[in-house]
Design a protein that fits this description.
By secondary structure, this protein is an alpha+beta fold. It folds into 3 domains: about 10-185, Sandwich (Immunoglobulin-like); about 195-275 and about 315-355 and about 370-515, Glycosidases (TIM Barrel), CATH 3.20.20; about 530-635, Sandwich (Immunoglobulin-like). The protein is built from 13 helices and 39 strands. The strands form 9 sheets. The protein has a 9-stranded parallel β-sheet with strand order 27-26-24-21-17-16-15-29-28. The chain has a 7-stranded antiparallel β-sheet with strand order 3-4-5-6-13-12-8, with no helix packed on it. α2 (about 210-220) runs parallel beside α3 and α5 packs across α8 (about 375-390). It is globular. This is Alpha-glucosidase, family 31 of glycosyl hydrolase.
């Protein structure tokens, strides 16, 4: 249980570049969601916290580090940063900067982003950046928090009864890159994905039969469209019961997977935490093993999700995580390669607007509000443990809709039920960038948009997005860490061939471009695994950037600059280039940096620039990632400027073994 408040007590500690202070306790609370190998906190007399019941000042020797207000009853803390951008907080809101927003740090089904301030993920971490300094601030609690950000002021208050816990703050200093690296040391670095997970994923709610799945796979191959994964949604299950196959729609799943493997495809199967109360093996196993969430009277909590009445596993219990992991056996035996965890915020009442914190739910004596934000992490950890046990030696791949700090140790994240709109296309980039700054390098959004708009009726999308919007989203998605097209059940099909022949031809070019760049993306995935740095990075992470400039651009690593098109009807866009020489990757034109330039950007042609001194390995696109990374590669060299040294690197292994065989 969390540490209890001791009035006026306080303490400080240091771990590497990170400094920590606690208001309301004379000993450091345990951080249960920290990485298993997180550094040890040690007292340091140079650190000083001046605090009694309100204003505080935190110093490191003679250096003023941070000041504001803090209180423990109720839990609240506020900071003020002069004229600062406030970044991070995961995917809490759209927009690159959190100023002018209010939101709740709590995992929740947003009902197609129809609940103001709601987010599928919860990250109580932000970076404050102005012309004088850059600080990372982590509020070390998993309790739901209400946040208001305005003109560099960040006010945070508990959204539930914390039962009396101290204010525990960790401060990270240095450059943006150093802060993100240090965050990953504390909460854990991302797993190294199998190479196939970096390929293209095609999905829909739902491909309802094995025949439909195979038809999609065969059409990809017939149209010469590279792809790796087809997702299986809830219609693959028997009456929406997790860990089952529908006896009529998917009567021979192993045979289907053999046919898919011959076509070079794998599958990701959906698994929700809601378990049908109907008598079947999964429910009986969890019930008899005392592994379910309960009400305060000790009876199982019953909600309503896809199967109707449902109960929910309690992932705070080690035995639950181990059991849940092994329940994937039937799906793995049929050939499923990985899993996507949906509705894992968790959703207790599907399609309803309700207050999750008001539900009478207990985790073996712990109120749900205190551990809700950790639910998806526990489910992902359980899934990974099962995959490791059932497919020993193979790298697991899990995709999660929800998550808290540390989710990257177990799963990639997608940004939930977005809209087919130009606004959400832009927010795709903003969310992925801020997730990367919050420790999650492997992230992406549903390309083309999942639904129509906010609210539960956003699932009804009678018209597919325009070909222009779809292709612009494919341009962006092809350069994101996770790349998937997905759409709702109540929508026209959204495969690349669904938008007419011109769009199909452009989609083919973009897919092949993705696969040509797989050596770069795979190396950056390794770098993320080893250093914690994101794959997709803000330009200011590596280059001096004027305030407010290049916020709609990004870097792949530190030498490849991308300027997506976010405006309907645009055929050109302005691109800000940092100092140095930059070569347009698709046209070969060289531009001097330190300025903005206007470049052509016709549909299908994303402005991508290579920094001078870049050595880029480019693959010959195959039908999937495995084939691509075995194909011949070329080395493109962009000469360094006089007096400087360039370089590049390549990472190759067998693509899926834990040991690597590099």
């Amino acid at each position: 249980m969390p540490a209890r408040v001791q009035t006026f007590a306080k303490c400080t500690a240091r771990a590497g570049r990170m400094a920590r202070f606690v208001a309301g306790a004379d000993q450091l609370p345990v951080i249960p969601w920290a990485a298993p190998d997180a550094p040890e906190w040690r007292p340091d007399p140079a650190l000083d916290l001046d605090w009694s019941t309100g204003p505080f000042a935190f110093r490191d020797g003679v250096e003023h580090v941070l000041s504001g207000h803090a209180g423990t009853t109720p839990f609240r803390v506020a900071f003020e940063f002069a004229a600062a951008e406030i970044l991070g907080f995961g995917a809490a809101t759209g927009g690159p900067d959190r100023n002018g927003t209010r939101f709740r740090v709590m995992t929740r089904d947003t009902l197609f982003y129809g609940i103001p301030g709601a987010s599928y993920t919860a990250f109580p971490f932000f970076i404050a950046r102005n012309e004088h300094s850059t600080l990372g601030v982590l509020i070390a609690t998993c309790d739901p928090l209400d946040v208001v950000v305005d003109e560099g002021k960040v006010a945070i208050a508990a959204a539930c009864d914390t039962g009396g816990v101290p204010v525990d703050i960790i401060v990270l200093r240095g450059t943006v890159a150093e802060i993100v690296r240090d965050l990953s040391v504390l909460v854990g670095r991302t797993f190294l994905p199998p190479a196939w997970a970096l390929g293209f994923h095609q999905s829909r709610w739902s491909y309802k039969t094995d025949r439909a799945v195979l038809d999609v796979a065969r059409r990809f191959r017939a149209l010469d469209l590279p792809a790796d994964v087809i997702h299986l949604d809830i219609h693959s299950m028997d009456r929406y019961r997790v860990f089952t196959w529908h006896p009529r729609r998917f009567p021979q799943p192993a045979a289907m997977h053999r046919d898919l493997a011959a076509l070079g495809f794998r599958t990701l199967a959906i698994v929700d935490p809601g378990v049908s109360v109907a008598p079947y093996t999964v429910h009986e196993t969890l019930s008899k093993g005392d592994m379910l969430l309960t009400r305060s009277d000790g009876q199982p909590y019953v909600g309503k999700v896809w199967p109707g009445a449902t109960v929910f596993p309690d992932f705070t219990q080690a035995r639950t995580r181990e059991t849940w992991g092994l329940l994937h056996r039937r799906l793995v035996a049929a050939g499923v390669a990985g899993f996507w965890n949906d509705m894992n915020d968790p959703v207790f009442r599907a399609g309803e607007t309700y207050e999750p914190l008001a539900e009478d739910v207990q985790h073996h004596g712990v109120p749900h509000a205190r551990v809700r934000n950790l639910y998806a992490n526990g489910m992902a950890e359980a899934t990974v443990s099962g995959l490791r046990a059932l497919r020993p030696g193979k790298r697991p791949f899990v995709l999660s809709r929800s998550g808290f700090l540390g989710i990257q140790r177990h799963a990639a994240v997608w940004t939930g039920d977005n809209h087919s709109s130009w606004r959400h296309l832009r927010e795709n980039l903003d969310m992925v960038l801020n997730l990367g700054l919050s420790g999650v390098p492997l992230a992406g959004a549903d390309v083309g948009g999942f639904g129509r708009g906010p609210g539960k009726y956003g699932a009804v999308k009678p018209f597919r997005p325009s070909a222009e919007l779809f292709i612009r989203w494919m341009e962006l998605g092809a350069l994101m860490p996770f790349f998937r097209v997905h759409c709702t059940l109540y929508a026209p099909h959204q495969e690349p061939w669904s938008f007419g022949r011109p769009a199909l031809d452009l989609a083919r070019i973009l897919l092949k471009r993705r696969y040509r760049l797989l050596p770069l993306l795979y190396r950056l995935a390794l770098e993320a695994h080893e250093t914690g740095l994101p794959i997709v990075r803000p330009v200011f992470m590596h280059y001096d950037t004027p305030p407010g400039v290049a916020r709609d651009q990004f870097l792949l690593g530190d030498r490849v600059l991308v300027a997506p098109v976010f405006e309907k009807g645009a055929g050109q866009r302005e691109v800000w280039l940092p100092s140095g020489a930059w070569t347009h990757w698709l046209t070969g034109q060289v531009q001097e940096g330190g300025r903005s330039v206007t470049v052509d950007a016709p549909l299908g042609l994303t402005p991508i620039f290579m920094r001078d001194g870049t050595a880029l390995f480019v693959a010959q696109a195959g039908r999937n990632a495995e084939e691509t990374l075995r194909n011949p590669m070329s080395l493109e060299v962009y000469p360094p400027s006089p007096g400087t040294v360039g370089g590049g690197s390549l990472f190759l292994d067998d693509g899926e073994s834990e040991s690597g065989a590099r």
